[in-house]
Design brief:
239 residues, alpha/beta, four-stranded antiparallel β-sheet, three-stranded parallel β-sheet, 9 helices, globular
């Protein structure tokens, strides 16, 4: 396989950059400074873990509520009927499922980002598992997307503000966007703290000992910076 050739811009960005472990604050600062593309690059955290995803009790799939939205348009679909459907509509849901929309979903339509459902709708939602599951759109009590009618408004507002789903890949790695180059360092650190805290708190039961092996930060088109794990553990979300 031929060796990948990096652009002149990339080679300039990595020249004389540190290759040792960095404090999280310094890593965020350098990642922003090295994001020199002409568009607003995403800033990402990549974690290697000691998990073995071949075992069900070592897999991880979590939802993070970010303090600062990623700036993306988030379309919300709600499975609800009666008063719950009215609450969802008034709270600003983009779609509230009726029979016609149910048929569209069954036919493969998935043009939204977040699914919510009231508990009474789960038998109906369950029949759509083959469509929703592979796309990460299946409501699940574990990630707070199955909610009681009186909690729909807050769930919709939370999803709109910044809801990030994280899944372990087949190589036991975790990847998450924490913002964009245009974010301040404080915003990026707050989002990073929320992501790392959620991941470490959700350590799979089957993983013994340390869960996270290594961590690195990078922009979409920039170099990668290795991050000192204790500095991540010490991060807290500030106001």
């Amino acid at each position: 396989m031929p060796k990948q050739k990096h652009s002149k811009r990339y080679r300039q960005a990595v020249a004389n950059l540190p290759t040792d472990l960095l404090d999280a604050n310094e890593a965020v600062k350098l990642t922003r400074e090295s994001a020199t593309a002409k568009f607003d690059e995403s800033i990402e955290i990549h974690l290697a873990t000691h998990a073995d995803p071949r075992h069900a009790d070592q897999q991880l799939r979590e939802v993070v509520s970010l303090p600062h939205s990623l700036g993306d348009v988030v379309r919300i679909l709600v499975f609800a009927e009666g008063d719950a459907a009215r609450i969802a509509t008034e709270a600003g849901a983009d779609y509230v499922v009726d029979d016609e929309m149910l048929d569209r979903i069954q036919g493969g339509w998935t043009d939204w980002e977040v699914s919510l459902a009231t508990p009474d709708q789960m038998p109906k939602v369950g029949r759509l598992g083959r469509v929703l599951g592979p796309r990460g759109l299946m409501p699940n009590p574990r990630n707070n997307t199955v909610v009681l009618p009186n909690n729909l408004e807050s769930a919709i507002n939370s999803a709109r503000q910044g809801r990030l789903e994280i899944r372990m890949d087949r190589h036991a790695n975790l990847h998450a966007r924490i913002g964009k180059r245009s974010f301040t360092e404080e915003q990026l650190l707050n989002n990073l703290a929320a992501v790392y805290e959620t991941i470490t708190r959700a350590k799979p039961e089957g993983v013994k000992g340390q869960f996270v092996k290594t961590a690195s930060l990078c922009s979409a088109m920039g170099p990668s910076f290795k991050v000192n794990l204790p500095s991540l553990e010490n991060l807290t979300v500030s106001d």
